[in-house]
Design brief:
By secondary structure, the protein is an alpha+beta fold. About 20% of the residues lie in helices and about 40% in strands. The model is unreliable at about 210-220 (pLDDT under 50).
Length: about 475
């Protein structure tokens, strides 16, 4: 019996294929890409690190072409009518690799300083605050594990095999040091039993001094301070313990976007009458004849894209999509938010049960957030004789940031399991990600993953 093993390249066309003892050097490796001639030859004949493919001149199968001339609408109806039999709805175990890449860019950090009755909280200090805030940050998490269940989040489980986090801890340390400095200034200048009135425009709120300082009222109480720090450390450790749970939820949220699910936000099949479809080509993906069908909304839907529809069974084996407008916008009293980006790709492959399973998923989400408001912090104290107002800081803030999240999931193996088997699975929630200040090419050695792109390979912390 022949064994098949596959891998997806990253956006740069890079891939690594880990071969186990069941493979021989004379086994064949097949490389394919839409629009190019496939390449197949024994593994031991691949001696170069770069594989070049030749553009393909498509020769259409006359039987397939002449058998039935479909309109785009007829094709989509055929896709819709065959969803239940084409896609797997079973409880499964999926061996997968999941990479979450987050990038934040602080695009604007302006403020207008008005007044401060605390000498240390002056314009120079606020300038130092802005210099401390990193203008660009990146954070990568990667996991390898087994994801169990179906499309019901209550039936999903995750057992981790290995996990990593790649980011610059120095950014966190700088902000912590800044918070400590800010708290020290306040402790030296505020009166006992003070509270703060924080006003932004017409709105205000009361905050006890202890809430801002996050320290005991008596700064000389070393034991109380030590206890407080221990509690903060304990909370951070508890948060990290739920790493696997957070990743399971993230995977569940992504999986419920699969286009063939009735409640998916990608509703171009479930609500196909809201879209225009157009057949633009007929080609091959590997040995599968496919129709290329573009879609776009007729009126108010969110996405446009391209479907790759198998000519034999009308399964969508690939979909590329992108938003045509902002998915959500918000603007009120100087605070704004714009979810401006939502693009993605899904690839499906037929499994042993003759149904299609997700093989690769990629999505990129982006949002812009802006704050343009006056800010006033007033120290008040009812026990001090004379003026109720003790100190005041007044300024106007104008800040904007752009953040993007990219999710990549590659599924190497899918196995149908029983409900009893799912019930017996014990989740491994104790495994925590290994922190990496710089990219380590040895960390995932021996495991199949999505090859890192240039940004990840060249990532270094400013230590």
């Amino acid at each position: 019996m022949s064994t098949k093993k596959g891998v997806i390249t990253n956006e740069e066309g890079r891939f690594t294929l880990q071969l186990t003892s069941q493979f021989q050097e004379t086994d064949s490796l097949f490389v394919s890409c839409i629009g190019y001639e496939g390449l197949a030859k024994p593994i031991n004949q691949f001696t170069e690190s770069v594989i070049l493919l030749t553009p393909k001149a498509i020769e259409l199968n006359p039987v397939i072409v002449s058998n039935k001339q479909y309109t785009a609408e007829e094709l989509i109806e055929a896709v819709k009518n065959n969803l239940k039999q084409n896609y797997s709805w079973d409880i499964t175990r999926k061996r997968l690799f999941f990479r979450d890449s987050y990038h934040q860019n602080l695009t604007k950090t302006d403020f207008t300083f008005k007044e401060s009755s605390i000498e240390a909280l002056n314009e120079r200090f606020l300038d130092s605050v802005l210099r401390t805030i990193p203008k660009e940050t990146s954070h990568y998490t990667e996991i390898l594990g087994d994801f169990y269940g179906d499309f019901n989040k209550d039936n999903q489980k995750l057992t981790l095999i290995k996990a990593s986090e790649l980011y610059d801890k120095q950014n966190e340390l700088d902000l912590t040091a800044l918070e400590d400095k800010f708290n020290d200034i306040l402790k030296k200048n505020i009166k006992p039993d003070s509270y703060f009135k924080i006003k932004s425009g017409w709105f205000g709120t009361k905050v006890d001094a202890d809430e801002i300082l996050a320290t005991p009222a008596d700064p000389q109480d070393a034991e109380a301070l030590k206890k407080e720090l221990e509690e903060k450390k304990k909370k951070e450790e508890e948060r990290k313990k739920f790493f696997a749970t957070f990743k399971k939820k993230a995977l569940g949220n992504i999986m419920e976007k699969l286009f063939f699910l009735e409640d998916s936000k990608l509703n171009f099949i479930a609500r196909n009458r809201r879209y225009n479809f157009n057949i633009i080509d007929f080609t091959y993906m590997g040995d599968q004849a496919v129709y290329l069908v573009d879609f776009e909304p007729k009126r108010s839907e969110d996405y446009k894209g391209r479907l790759y529809i198998n000519a034999d069974d009308f399964a969508v084996i690939r979909v590329d999509y992108s938003n045509v407008k902002s998915l959500k916008t918000f603007r009120l009293l100087g605070v704004s938010m714009d979810q401006y980006l939502a693009t993605g790709k899904m690839l499906f492959a037929k499994g042993d049960n003759n149904a299609y399973h997700l093989q690769y998923l990629e999505e990129e989400l982006g949002a812009r957030i802006g704050i343009k408001r006056p800010l006033k912090i007033i120290e008040l104290n009812k026990r001090v004789k004379g003026r109720n107002k003790q100190n005041e800081l007044s300024l106007k803030i104008d800040m904007a940031t752009t953040g993007t999240n990219k999710h990549q999931i590659v599924i190497f193996d899918t196995e149908t399991i029983s409900a009893t088997k799912l019930e017996s699975i014990k989740e491994n929630n104790d495994l925590l990600p290994t922190y990496m200040p710089n990219y380590d090419p040895e960390f995932w050695k021996g495991h199949n993953i999505i090859e890192p792109n240039k940004a990840i390979r060249e990532f270094t912390s400013a230590e």
